[in-house]
Amino acid sequence: MKALVPIFLVVAILFAVQIIVSFDRWPVDSVQQGFRGTGMVEISNPRIEADLVKANQPPDSYGPTEPGGPKASEIYQNVEVLGDLSEDEFTALMISITAWVAPEQGCAYCHNVENMASEEVYAKKVARRMLQMTKTINSQWKDHVADTGVNCYTCHRGNPVPQYAWFQETGPAQSVGGFNAKRQGQNVATERAVYTSLPYTALDELLVADGNIRVQSAGALPIVGETGVGLQATEHTYSLMMHMSDSLGQNCTFCHNTRALGSWEQSNPVRTKAWYGIRMARDINNTFVMPLQPLLPEAHLGAQGDIGKVSCMTCHQGVNKPLYGAPMLTDHPTLGVASN
């Protein structure tokens, strides 16, 4: 019996240490986002910030290529999206895309290197559609990306499949009966819901489906329908907000005045950017990403057989501006022009 005491103490000490290190140690930095007394303060930890800076370095920049000369479509076969570029611009962009997406695999990741015009490699068709998506984001979603723009590196960071693409959750094994028999997609600690009890299906409901993102009813009680919102929709909203907070490394007051969450007049201007960002993610997932699912091999699909989709974390990766706002179109401004 006495031998159990030291073991218990060791376990207790390790548990206490784990709890302590899970919290941000002081000193921390703070920035006031709103009027004094409203509690609108953003907290940052310099120790964590150093890791974020290291993980969010922009790609090497070689400067833009001088335009001029024959067009790529006049020299190469089967150039559908980038045919208007000069040969030099086209080559420079292909080299950059290789470094952004498949630095280890090289050109063979998308092409049959014996016949570069061939369509036999599925990734070539995917890459073509992703280029169209990038051009659409930069030209039609400026309310979110501004003139900073995005390129392949924004999401991929040197990985063929973006590290923070998300797939449908399989969910835990269901209980035999009782209250836990139907979890309604919640009460399970998942990274998707930032380890809360909130629904882990929020991204499916709100970044793919056109779900109602609201938490405040127009009446005294939650009313399902056009005039209000039910409790389950509220929980999905909070789950998405937790995901956004985690993705941007910010708390609620980055966008909202928490004394009046629904008031746009009392919110920070960046709330508008977030509004457009949610709708941009929906557009990307439904228009560009999900239609590519039949092209992908099984190894690139999730446990439910679905393609990896886009969320706030896919681009932001822990900071409020992807790659701390580094301009993504300087070297290849053609990515900011809509496809014909």
Give a written overview of the molecule.
Helix 5 (122-140) packs antiparallel against helix 10. This protein has helices spanning 4-21, 46-55, 72-75, 87-101, 122-140, 142-145, 152-156, 202-206, 231-248, 270-289, 312-316; strands at residues 29-32, 41-44. It is built from 11 helices and 2 strands, in the order H-E-E-H-H-H-H-H-H-H-H-H-H. Strands 1-2 form a two-stranded antiparallel ribbon. The chain is globular. The mean pLDDT is 86. It folds into 2 domains: 41-154 and 330-340, Photosynthetic Reaction Center, subunit C, domain 2; 164-168 and 186-316, Photosynthetic Reaction Center, subunit C, domain 2. It is an all-alpha fold and 340 residues long.
Secondary structure topology:
Elements: H1 4-21, E1 29-32, E2 41-44, H2 46-55, H3 72-75, H4 87-101, H5 122-140, H6 142-145, H7 152-156, H8 202-206, H9 231-248, H10 270-289, H11 312-316
Antiparallel strand pairs: 1-2
Helix pairs in contact: 5-10
Question: What can be said about this structure in brief?
Answer:
This protein is mainly alpha-helical and 340 residues long. The chain has helices spanning 4-21, 46-55, 72-75, 87-101, 122-140, 142-145, 152-156, 202-206, 231-248, 270-289, 312-316; strands at 29-32, 41-44.
Short descriptors:
340 residues, mainly alpha, Photosynthetic Reaction Center, subunit C, domain 2, 2 domains
